[in-house]
Batch of 3 targets.
Target 1
Amino acid sequence: MSVGPTGQSGPTGPGGPTGTPPAAAPPDPYAPVRTRGYPKLLLTAAVIGFPVCAIAFGFLAVVHALEPLLYVDLPRALGFAGTPLWWPLPVLALAGLLTGLAIRYLPGNGGHEPADGLALGGPPLLSALPGVALAALASLAFGAVLGPEAPLIALGGGLAAAAARLTWRGTDAAGVVAMVGSAGSFAAISALLGSPLLGAFLLMEVAGLAGPLLGVVLVPGLLASGIGALVFTGLGDWTGLGTYSLALHDVPRAAEPTVPEFGWALVIGVAAACAGTGIRWLARWLKARVIRHRVPATVLMGLVVGALAVGFSAATGKPAQELLFSGQSALGTLFHDSAGYSMAALLLLLLGKGLAYAVSLSAFRGGPIFPSLFLGAAGGVVLSHLPGLSLTPAFAMGVGALAVAMLRLPMTSVLMATLLMGRSGLTVMPLVIVAVVVGYVVTLRLTPAPAAPGRPAPAPSAA
């Protein structure tokens, strides 16, 4: 026996004290930070954060300006005393035509398919960005039930990556372009969500980052998102348009969680998982038929969304716009004016907007986050009328549970629901965690497992 260099005894033999070749030292995961190029990468991310977030702010400003223009100002300019009941039908049909043409004929397929969830497939090429922007504008501003987060991720990442390609040369250019593109997406989505921390968790869970590499990759994005938050705040104050960030104001302080509320957390988690699974199934079933005849099918889907809005307005007497759009700006109204909704109106809103959400996911372009938050919140408002559950925790649990059912991102869903509730967020967080965990597990159990590699999926039964 002999003592090896590590101080452990073992038999000697060829190749070293143990008879095997000496193991190579593990690579240093923080080596990129120690290179000379990393400070340059951080500077690039910081500089790119300014124009990327300014463009993201402009995109959101255009979307929000077009909404009242199309649904309030245009009908009056055409001689109507107000917005006609049937007005959403031609507007959504036009939205379907413009979106379908952008997807069919412009590079980039109009961005990613929202029915497939929120995904990061790398920053798009610069040539694809006009199609992404046009398809998103035609969808979001005209009333499709989708959010702006996916187009912002694509626009921010594509612009940042294009700038990096122009300014960075060398053997590591491909890796730098990918990292700067991620930083651009990070900056755009963080400013929209109102928190760089929330944006970090979102992109971390979507990209599957973990370990020491997580910090190396996220630091440029954190820097860019911090700069972007300043840009959003500055432009919002200067223009008077606000920041378009996810936030509720004047949330009443919640009481400490009770045992019945933990029981309701289980119920809300299961209900949200079932609802989210149904919405995703319907969206994918419709999507498989839309892609066969993209333009006419997208027009038809627009008419379906418009018909749902008309039916909701006719049945409740409320504006059709309450069923349309992402629901981002309506979350505060839903929370503070929940007493103004009858139970029947709330149930019709849930059903109609849920169906419009699935239809919009199948054909239009946008993100899945904000409609899921609104639908979860509306479901929480409905349940808050039942014994043992107050409004604030019901609202927060509904938001978190349906978000995780649609996104399958548990950490992000907990943070969104918690930060949305402001000062009461920490109080209701234990309830939100239970609802999100239950919703996440039940959603995964309801989702069919993917087919094994090399083995076709089983054929559907003829029965």
Note: The radius of gyration is 25 Å.
Target 2
Amino acid sequence: MLSKKTKYGIKALTYLARRENNDPVQIAEIAKNEHISIKFLESILLLLRNSGFLGAKKGKGGGYYLIKDPKDISMAKVYRILEGPIALLPCASHNFYERCDDCDDESTCAARRLMTEVRDNTLKILESNSLADIAF
């Protein structure tokens, strides 16, 4: 199940992408319009800023803004930043691979085969969608 952090991160990015200009937006405005706790949203936006998706301006007229064009923001990258691995099992992950403690033979593991297929299809969908694709 998708975490609230990821859901709210996508909602905040979509809110910023839909704006007619790229002026900074205060956290309170995003939180109010997207029904997200300000404190929780602060931590999400900071993570997205540190990951290179957002810029921030302090002071009057300050807030967060996109530093990349929405068409250049891959939803797969956003997902990995906010949610972590796309694979549901560590042995099926490309970027976060770990062998399962209870597995004798990965090549015959039915759970791994199924979860690898789930990962591949999920990744295909996330990689084929940018922020622009989902925001407009």
Note: The mean pLDDT is 96.
Target 3
Amino acid sequence: MKKLSVNFLVIAAFSLLLLAFVTIKDGGIKGKVSPDSGAVQVVAVAGTDTIKGDLSSGSFTINNVKPGTYTVWVKAKPPYKDKSVENVAVVDSTVTDVGEIKLEQ
């Protein structure tokens, strides 16, 4: 009987531990580039990880971003210059809005 109780407790603890990892979800980054026709690509960089974003009419979203601190790079079309936003914090299951990124000529 005692062995059965110990086995049950071990299995229950292991199951709870697995559920704790299942609930962690990646976040995202969103924003807008101005002028809306000035950007070619938007990426988020953290260390050696680079994640490409979807860009449409100046608005962008970067999905499946692991929690951490990122630099968002906007690759611009000439005559505009590339621009970056540093220290963008992404937390679990949250989409971080960087607002409007204004490109300069």
Note: The radius of gyration is 21 Å.
